[in-house]
Design brief:
Blueprint: H1 3-13, E1 20-24, E2 30-35, E3 39-44, E4 49-55, E5 83-84, E6 107-113, E7 119-124, H2 127-131, E8 139-147, E9 151-159, E10 165-167, E11 169-171, E12 174-176, E13 184-186, E14 193-195, E15 201-203, E16 216-221, E17 227-231, E18 236-243, E19 247-252, H3 254-260, E20 272-279, E21 285-287, E22 292-303
Antiparallel strand pairs: 1-2, 2-3, 3-4, 5-11, 6-7, 7-8, 8-9, 9-22, 10-21, 11-20, 12-20, 13-17, 14-15, 14-16, 16-19, 17-18, 18-22, 19-20
Length: 312
């Protein structure tokens, strides 16, 4: 079935939701646009990922997407909230980085509207995609995306196979910022972290907010508190509250790594920072046969008075 036919069938199926529109986006890929009284958002069925989220009471978008991002089957999209699943980082047997969920087309399972007019979409990765990797045959992945005043994303892994599976994963969320050199991140001051630029050596807790003035690529451990991104130039804070996750990644590629990526602009590092909700490193999970694991993040942007923002 062609993309146009798929989109036409989906538009007919969900015609009772005037705030939802299906359309052919970049690369001829199927997209979903949601526009309700709270926000405008776009979701790519390639990767099952939200690409943009713009609350109507704020001047700036919450999520960043690279102008150089690939929009091609078999490749991940650098922007929004890519789904890294069923492994995060490089696979030990050379099967590539960040799993296969982000580079395949997903299906729309349902769309609902609650009493507050929040739109909830449930997407799933087709079973035949998982079956291509024998270890993951019989395991089901779905995502639940709620778009309203806040953005909530849940990854739901159901192990329908007859054996336990070891899972690491991430919502590799890119946040749009005024300038990465002027923002700071609170909530991880007391957490140790594994530092990728130092060959994953464990570093002591910094005791202060995270700032970005060089490459940052860290896996924070034992994360149990909300994380807040403060952007004084835009008078905005973005708070992330997670469930089913006890780790987080903070990433900015800085100058040299930005130049080395074909799907990322040389100077775009100043416009973004990734704060990723993860099951990574020691937080990887074992999902027994018949069990379900849900990892979820709630993203709450709000206006703040820049005079009250103090870097500690």
């Amino acid at each position: 079935m062609s993309t146009a036919q798929v989109l036409s069938e989906l538009q007919t199926q969900y015609a009772s939701f005037p705030e939802v529109r299906f359309f052919e986006g970049k690369g001829g890929l199927p997209f979903v646009r949601v526009s309700n009284r709270f926000c405008d958002a776009e979701i790519s069925l390639l990767g099952g990922q939200i690409l943009s989220f713009s609350p109507k009471d704020q001047a700036q978008p919450v999520l960043f997407c690279s102008d150089a991002a690939y929009f091609e089957l078999g490749k991940g999209i650098k922007g929004g909230a890519p789904v890294c699943w069923p492994w995060f980082g490089d696979h030990p047997d050379g099967l590539g980085a960040h799993g296969f969920a982000r580079s395949n087309l997903w299906r729309v399972d349902s769309i609902e509207r609650d009493d507050c007019e929040v739109i909830e979409l449930v997407l799933s990765l087709p079973a035949e995609v998982c079956a291509q990797t024998p270890e993951w045959q019989g395991v089901r992945l779905s995502t639940k995306i709620r778009v309203g005043k806040w953005l909530t994303i849940a990854l739901i892994t159901e192990n329908g196979s007859d054996k336990a599976v070891s899972l690491s994963q991430a919502l590799h969320t890119y946040f749009q910022v005024s300038d990465c050199r002027t923002i700071h991140i609170e909530g991880l001051e007391n957490n140790t972290y594994l530092d990728k630029p130092s060959n994953f050596q464990r570093q002591a807790a910094a005791g202060k907010a995270i700032t970005v003035n060089a490459e940052v690529d860290r896996v924070y451990e034992n994360v149990h508190s909300p994380i807040t991104l403060l952007d004084p130039n835009w008078n905005r804070s973005i708070t992330l509250t997670s469930e089913g996750s006890a780790s987080a990644v903070v990433w900015n590629p800085w100058v040299e790594k930005s130049k080395a990526m074909n799907d990322f602009g040389d100077n775009e590092y100043t416009q973004m920072v990734c704060i990723e909700t993860t099951n990574a490193a020691s937080d990887a999970r074992v999902i027994d046969s018949g069990q379900t694991h849900t990892m979820q993040v709630k993203i709450h942007p709000k206006a703040v008075d820049s005079r009250s923002v103090v870097i500690t």
